[in-house]
Amino acid sequence: MKKFYKSIGLFAIMLFSFYYTEKIAILMQNKSPLMQNIHEVEERYKEVATNATILGEYIVPGVMGRMVNKTKSFVNMKSFGVFNEYYLIFDDVKPEVSLEDHKDKIIRSGHPSKKAIAYLLEDGNPEIETYFERNQIAASLLVTEKSYKNNSYFEQINNDSSKFRNVESLLNKNNQNKNICYVKSFSKEFCQKEQKYLVLETFSLGSANFVEAKSQLVNGAIVFVKKTATVETIKLFQKEVQFKGLEVVSLSELIAEKKEK
Q1: pTM for the full model?
Q2: Element (H, E) at 254
Q3: 26 — phi, psi (to 5°)?
Q4: What is the number of domains present in the chain?
């Protein structure tokens, strides 16, 4: 029994020793000029997270904030022995109201602060696909098992109701699955069961609605390009995108709450 209590005592001393040593290390770290410099600039780099907006069954994703990870930044700079803001390390700050907690809601646009749009292409028009690829314009493409390509230029979205599992396997195998579900092709219940992001377009672009589509072009828009659209119509629309200073990104990037580095 004495040995048992002795072991408990030694263990307690060890725990206290580790705790005390850690506290001393933190105290010394906070007193160092390097850490003082980090404290001085952390507020300047702090970005407050923006909450997602929920309107009935729809949601506009929020935007993650960021804050300086002081300990990691300190360790990163300590090896150089000098303070340099270039070596600051940041942590993401999740919005209080986040898309990740409301995947039952449907996304019809990205957050407007991103000043970007995304094209979602209907499968079945090689001429349109060639135009996007040749001009290096980002786009996401709805695919089936038959149209899926291993080395596609496009971000590929599973749109095969009959061979859904097969396409999922292909996307997972090649680390291409963005877990986006186009709600017009599948039921909302099916998308939720598969734990996907539920997505619909902000508006469609076809062969005869350029003026209408142009009037709806805003930050965060998801533009569904119909296979009946003409390349000439897309060219005109893309000029309007450039005129408004909008970046074209993939669908997954547009709806993501985490900012691209």
Answers
A1: 0.84
A2: helix 251-255
A3: -65, -40
A4: 2
